[in-house]
Amino acid sequence: MPILVPEPHDEVCFREDGKRLDGRAVDELRPFSCEVGVIKNAQGSALVRHGKNLIYAAIYGPREVHPRHLARPDRGILRVYYRMATFSVHERKSPAPNRRENEISKVIREALEPVLFLEAYPDSQIEVYIEVIAADGGTRCASTTAASLALADAGIPMKSMVVGVAAGKAQGKVLLDLGDKEDKVGQADIPCVVVMKDKSISLLQFDGEMTLEEMKLGFEYVLKGAEIIYQKQLEALREKYNKISRQAEIEDAELSKETPKEEKTASESTDTAVSPESSDIFKSDVEAESAENTRSAEINETPEASETPSTEGSETKTSQEDVSSVGKEAKEENTLSEESAPSEVPPQAGEDNPTGDDK
Ligand code: UDP
Questions:
Q1: What is the model's pTM?
Q2: Staple partner for 125: which of 52, 60, 65, 276, CB 3.0–4.6 Å?
Q3: Is the CATH number of domain 32-248 3.50.50.60?
């Protein structure tokens, strides 16, 4: 009868050269990068790549609370939704929210609440949506880092940024920032969230066994790692505002390119009124106008008047007389036509048909 020997579980977390399987030192972080403003529809958002973890966080609010009965008249509420995508892990995860996700949502909320001024938002809620697109161990920490960055991006006032990072133990060695395998086969895992302003801890979970000395070393590693991540968070926020100011500079430059043209046009039109050349133009316009007047007066002249040789002054007088006589004639004509024209006075009551015409 064959003896079934269970396959030995591979607990190796170190290479022969003493480094971790991914080549890191015991107190070294996985590669970390982050950016903000990645989701246009959200009020604030962040994308965090921490090792092979890929996590989005998006913020909505402060806004009205739904359902209404959850609203608090003395302070705002923070609601955190941590979700793992079905394809984020090796073995397909059910799309339905599970107990683990609800627990992680709760601990992230508790880690963020101390740095927010929720008392400033009575009857309101701030919602934090976290989507883990790819998971590689330590997702609760990376999610808290992403949520903090997204809150800052949304412009929600905070006492401090927070950073999530874990320490732990594998094969008897204290480690910083455990990867997926180290997390699963290691002897201990301490996910922490550090409030960067005063280096206080707003989340501390502990799973496994460690001595007090090992824990102290672990916290040293955590503070060191958190500082590095914090600098990257600040860099991401700075980069966003640099981008905005660069864009504003480009727009200003484009505007100032257009403005001189307008100013030139404006100054040209002002010049027309005052410059000697333009005053000549103006003068010639006036001359042209007076010449036109003289010509029209000549047309109105009677043949006799036009024939009469005279000086300029008398000519003008004649034209004036003619104009007045024409005016007089026109007035007489008007009077006559007024007398002959039918009265425009509306018919009186009872005079429906004053002309007597039957229509
Ligand atoms: N994990 C998984 N399937 C699940 C939940 C978790 O494969 O349904 C993996 C995932 O890679 C996760 C790791 O297990 O990062 C450790 O999960 P844990 O609950 O310790 O949370 P985390 O370390 O991610 O904060």
A1: 0.71
A2: 65
A3: no
